[in-house]
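Supplementary Methods S3. Input chains for the assembly prediction are listed below.
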Amino acid sequence: MPEQPAVRVTNVSKRYGRRAPTLRDINLAVEPGTIVTLAGSNGSGKSTLLRCIAGLARFIGVIEVRSHDVRADGGFRGEVGYLPQSVAFPPQSTVDETLAFFAQLRGTGDVALPLPDGFLPARSALVGTLSGGQRQRLAMAIALLGNPAVLLLDEPVSNLDESGRESVWTMLCELKATGTTALIASPSPADLAGIGDRTVVLHEGRIVDDREQVAS
Amino acid sequence: MAGWEYRNASRSRWVIGTAVAFALLCLAVSLLGLRSLRELGLSGVGPASAALINLGILLPALMGLLLGGNALVAAREQGVLPMIAVQPVSRSSLVLGPFLGVSAALAVSVLLGFGVAAVVLSGVARRSDVMPLTALVGSTLAVAVTCVAIGLGVSAVSRSRLQATSTAITLWFMLALGMDLVLAAAAPAVRMGPAGLLVAVVSNPLEAGRVLALLGSSSDGTALGPFGAYLVESFGSGGAAAILAGSLVFWTLAPLVLARWVLSRGDL
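Predicted structure tokens for the full assembly:
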């Protein structure tokens, strides 16, 4: 029997209020253990598609994550790690408290992460004292808690320095080898050359290109 | 989640600042009340507790509306709510966590303020003052918690922090002053009887809390004048207290249900 896609998006459309549709009839199937880059200019619908898959936005159509219907079955949430484009955690909390809180929500007491030493800022540091890049590293760590089977990452390296980017790409390659699936929204897909398996290009809410990435 | 929300709320400079301001106001009101007592040659804590009722109902209500009003919309704007919502937690937890956490932080602020007042008034308080003061603290906490819930309802339907804050302040003015003014102007014209007044009171959680506190200060309802006499005569003091408390429970549950519904149906 063929393996079920890790993520299956069927005839999905999304409109915010009376504005023009942000997503128009999207169809996409992502095989387990693959890294898909969602490319496209600003406003093309990349972030909205990730938000729909994460169950954070209402949509028309059907989305399944590891066979869970996103709209009907909350069970998919334990399988997904999500990194929004920008996040500002409460400034009075420490890095450790923030990680522990999300680990508790995740149902894992363990905050061991597949990240290299030095990737995260000091655990005792107050979040309010962190730079934008350090906050993004913390958010990335939270998205990885509990080893989710599907990662939805919205511009994961936009605020990171060169070493941070390198760490994220290395970590993604290692996770991919263990069967983790990732959908990564990126305005500059060239960054993922050699890492991504497939590039899906969106334009005005439609998929206009979908091609395998050739290993470099 | 409630613990996380409590920790963040109680560490917020805004909450600490308002808690200190409330404590200082309670202290000032208590000292002024004591001076009045001495000048009038009275005993007990009557004038001080009357002033504390107004302070206790108005300020914590504003704090509750603002804190609750910002809780969800700020978390949504900052990207924290989406990160929490993708975790395996129920949609009810997204509302109940902030409700319990913010309510607890506000309750600590209120108890701190009244604690200061209690220390000042302890020298002149009589045994008979204990019940009215307990009713005052209980009513204040109930109104504060109710306002956190109303604030959360506002937060769930607001698109920005600015919108939530301005709605919360407008709502506070309406509940604290607007409805009283409308009532004062309209009651004689429409010949509103005590039953109509009761409907108006239970329609406004701040008023329900104030009447509950006053009812607690005199179980025969004399502190409320003819309206108090009507309440006690019609429902008994326990029944009247139950109606008023029921109104606060309704104004707590209704916005929480609304917020839960909005979060489960809308975009996060």
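Chain B touches chain A at residues 1, 4, 7-8, 11-12, 78-80, 82-90, 265-268 (CB under 8 Å). Residues 70 and 162 of chain B are 9 Å apart (CA to CA).
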